[in-house]
Design brief:
The complex is a heterodimer. By secondary structure, chain A is mainly α. Helices cover 76% and strands 0% of the residues of chain A. The chains are: A mainly alpha, B mainly alpha. At the A-B interface, helix 11 and helix 13 of A face helix 1, helix 2, helix 3 and strand 2 of B.
Amino acid sequence: MENHPKFDLSQAVAAWSRCGGAGAPLLPEEAAQREASLLKAIGDLQLRGLTPEEAFHIAVSRLEGQALPEDSYPKTEKQSVWWPRLSWMVGGLVVLDFIGATVGFLTEIPRLQGGDPPWLQTWWSSAMRLSVNMAWSFGVLAVLLALQTKPAAAAVGGKWLTRLGKGRRPVLLVGLLVLVECGLTVAKYERDVSQTSPPSQEALKAAARINRQFAPYSAAWYWAWHLSVVAALGVLWMRRRQALAARSSTLASPPETADSPVPAVMIQDWTNRFAAQEGVTREQARELGGHLQDSFEKLQSLGLSKTESWWLARRRVGSVEDLAEEMRLENPTAHWRERVGWVFFGW
Amino acid sequence: MYCAVMNKKDLVAASSRPLVLALLAQGESYGYEIIQKIRELSREEIDWNEGMLYPVLHRLEREDLITAEWKKSENGRERKYYRLTPGGRKALASEKTDWMTVHNTLERLWKTIPSSI
């Protein structure tokens, strides 16, 4: 009574024989001899408790001296534990800030429609905020442009950054002019206000005037800046996902010569990948990691090589299609709770 | 063919619950060991895979029939051990009654069927 997916061994062996293996075309007697060797190897492996499919793949790899077929799940980039957490922290922080900026922008509207805000305390706020935001924006832009020559930055920014880089002088010039203009305006009015203490009515009127003049720009700039950061993060996230899907880095096998069991770091690596790719919680992946290690040791004790044991253990534990799906269904909100936790931790 | 496969899958799914509960009634155990014990007890007739066992264990845990605890084994490795709860013992008794009823009925029926079938 098994619940393994159906695998037709005789069909697989026939297909393998038709292909003639990996080598040159063989004579009929040679082909028959190869098939007999394969069947014998499969029989031996099945006696050790392997399923027909597992025995077939290992016997073929032994006969042809080729690597075992790779499973789909290890074809991801090595995931560090902290990269996704950091992404959620930074991303969440920016999104929360963006929501704050949007609310701020909306609350500016009634002010622009002729309200009488308390200019006395915050007379310089709009102009100052605009200056600071401008400085941030152009500062970040300058760093990006400076990094544009570096391969790592070019890989992240790609064509978009390269195109922006071509017009870097005018962009930087306009940015600097706006920054200087803002700075001069703030400095001028601060000087005017500080000449009299308490500030004269004229200075306060001037402050109110400059505030009205800058308020729409300040709010719009603040909002647009956050919108662009959120959009940029979204683009980076999409690019990273595409890169992960396209990349094919495989897990290494444990060294055959070492006497020690599979290194804990390899189990940890697999656990991280499994959790990241399959969307199961870290505890679920950790439990499977322990199972993987037990399975690996058992297979080794059956006489399989370390490479074969490692491949087969991963295949048995990780490539069960329903497993990740079942685990996700078990606790669909657990992963999101974890992510929201990291967002608030970052905040 | 399709029906035969489906029936086997259904049988595996239905029997997994009493089998896990009965096994844990003997003492606490972890996922890999449960699979091995079931294989041994069934003389390798029942061959569960991980994709079937862990969802069953987690479901039983959600139903408070079993509890789980991370513990260090003799070789220093951490494993998640499952143990039966009082609720699990009651559920096991109920399962036993149900399955014995099915078993006894089938046994009586088998006797009426000609041995050539």
